[in-house]
Amino acid sequence: MKFILAGIDEKAEVKKMLIVYVIACVIVFGSFGIWKLVVNILGNM
Hints:
The chain is mostly helical and 45 residues long. 89% of the residues lie in helices and 0% in strands.
């Protein structure tokens, strides 16, 4: 919503914030996937 209503300068700041949020989401979901994989491998031993 902020991106739609923002001016040109504000849109650049919003894009920077979105990049940070996307990277954080990738790290969180990636670490959860790795953790689940490790638990499954250790559970099968």
